[in-house]
Every structure is written in structure tokens, then in C-alpha cells.
Amino acid sequence: MEGESGMTIDLTLLGTGTSGGIPFVNCDCPTCTSTDPRDKRYRTCGILKISNGKNVLIDCGTDIRKCLLREGITHIEGIIISHCHADHVHGLPDLVKFYNGHPIPIYCNDVCGKQLKGKYSTLVEGDDRKFDVNITTSPFKLCDVTFTPVPIMHGKLPIFGYRFGNATYITDCKTIPNDSYKIIDGSEILVINTLANTDHETHLSYEQSLAEIRKIKPKVAYLVHMTHTHNHEFIQNYFDTNKQEFPETKNIEIIEAVDGIHTKPIHV
């Protein structure tokens, strides 16, 4: 599929773990002690490398410094934020080094915007601010790409996923409101969270994530925000096996993402 602009995006999933990362501190479970590098996870975040040379971050949690150093990122032109939990925004001070005389634009919902102004007032307010907080529920243009916020629920907390081109990025989701499926519809590439194989009050389980993939019907789905209850191999095998039970998912490529993976090219 070719996008209207002719541009493409290389989405790198910088981190793919839950709020504690993997390994957890002081945990000797099989996943946390695994020697498989695929079981080492920073907190979930991503970077969009646009073919016009600009970079946009998706979230900036406590591991963002290590992720950006690993990938050799030297400039950031914008940030889109899903919500204001620590594992998604507490790395914001590390991004001050990307300030080049013009505040870096941040886009988020109203709940997150108010929290950012409370936590980081010296960074986001005043004449010396390093970031501009833009609160919106409407589509917006950033680095020549149109982003459409996708309202989703993180338990009882309203947060954002984002649609851009033929892709949708969703993290920390428990439920997707009916109207949001209209925004997601037609996405060929889907990034979606899957925490564990048991139910959780604020995150999708493996079974629930598979149900959402069945409903959205992307060509390829990348799983993120995993915890340490199972290792990479188990999770990949779970989805490889269980997707065969449904005609809607048999031919969908479902990838248990690992840190640093590049998605298929996104057309915008």
C-alpha cells in the first residue's frame, strides 16, 4: 500500500517490556534469569524514523536514555505520548539534550497534559521551556505526518493509541471503545500490548490481545508490553498455536516483538 504523501516510516520498537522491565529487580524466575537476549526488555517505547529525515518518539519512559544511546539517535523532532505513567514519561528530562533552540512539540490527551505540566513545569512552561505540550483529541500534523489519536482505556484511565498511515500503535490497553475501531479500521500494521496469560484489570491478556487482532484484522501484529511470567519462546508459540483456531487470524503474522525490532515499512 502506498500512502498519499509517498513517505514511509521505519518504526523501531525501542523497548517491549512492562513497567518493571525484564529482568525484574530481585527476581530469579526463569524469564528474569534467562540467557536468551530476547528476554531482556526495556520499558515499551518506539521511534518513528520518517523518510524525510525527521524522528518522532512514541513515549519516553525511564529507559529512554539507554534505548536512544543503543540506537545512536542524534535528533528528535517530536514526541507523542500515550499516557503519563512513569514507564512512559519519566525519561523526559533525558530528552533536553535534543533541544536546539526551539521547544520540541509533545502531543497527548488532556489528562496527560495536565500531569506533564505538574511534574515537569520547568521543562514545559515559560520562556525557557524545552518542550511544547499540545493537548488534542483531533488529528494533527507532526513532521509532515498526520497522526490521529485513538482513544482507548487503560483500566479506568483514558489514554491514547495513535493511527498514522497504514499503522496503529496501541499500548497499555484494556478495552477499545467502539468508536475507536473506526479510526483503526484498515490498519495493515498493528502494534498492541499483551501483558500475560492471565486476566489483568488494566492490560490485555494474551487471549484478549488475540481477540483484538481477530477484530482489527491487520496483515501483521507486533506484541509489546510483556511481563516476566513467560519467556519470548512461550509467548510466540502461544500465538502461533492459538491463531490457528480462528479463520480471521490464520493468515495474520503475529510477532512477539523484541527490543530493537523494526516493523515492516509504514506508508503515510
UniProtKB/TrEMBL annotation:
It comes from the Eukaryota. This is Metallo-beta-lactamase superfamily protein. PANTHER family: HYDROLASE C777.06C-RELATED, HYDROLASE C777.06C-RELATED-RELATED. InterPro entries: Metallo-B-lactamas (IPR001279), RibonucZ/Hydroxyglut_hydro (IPR036866). It holds the Pfam family Lactamase_B_2. Residues 42-225 form the Metallo-beta-lactamase domain.
